[in-house]
Amino acid sequence: MSNVSKVKRINSPADVVHEVRYGLKGILLYLLPMPVLIAAVVSLIQGNFWKTIVLGSSFAGFMLAAIIARHGLRIESTFERKKFAKAPGTPYKNVAAIILGITTALTAYFATEHSLISSVLTGAAALLGFIFSYGIDPRKDKTGNISLGVTAEEVIEALEVAEIKIDNLEVAKRSIKNLDFKQRIDRIIAKARKILTVIEDDPRDLQRARKFLKVYLSGAERVTQKYAQTHKREATTDNIDANFERVLDSIENTFDKQHTKLKENDQFDLDVQIEVLETQLKQEGIS
To answer: Domain check: are 14 and 121 in the same one?
Structure first.
């Protein structure tokens, strides 16, 4: 797998709502151990250093479980949102549940002086309570039936690379003040995401969309970034603006055609259009 998966993508409003909803699921894990922290402070004031160390360590264990669990929930959120994805490699929620159970058992035994059996049962109850509340990590890939020489890894990497290019378009757009250009770029981004959705629904379409993703999406990213850099330096001219507008028109029209052809499950030969776009990008004085 390429390192591109490590790049954090910019989320749409719908993605943000989805992640917030998942994030809120783990917030209680930070709040429930607060009595342990208060007890540790009281023990410190009373001069009971052994109990302070025990309670402080317990609080640290609970916080560690909460941090790991929240990370697992965020990963699960991303996995659930995608139609095509590999299951998380590390079972963060399961690890958090185990840490929570062990910490609870040790706290019950050393801090509250429960019996060994009672402490173990309390820890087991905490572990089961976590699983019932948050579930376990997804272990089954969402890859469907891959065929026609396309592997799941190839599809996932292609989608991730495409998402990064779309995110770069979003970033570049922020530096452009021309409202019409911003709206055009927004339309291009929306059309690109629709094409990615088609590929997610039927990964076999990747074979026919490969040139599109590599040339047109890359071209849209490159030309927009170049124009944004020129715009930042306030070095744009009427001629550059006109050239950029023509390029955006060409890209947007091709995005529409590609989406239509993929939906129709029809072969779309982009060779001629690719040559036209590459020539246009070189001649317009933007790239």
So the answer is: yes
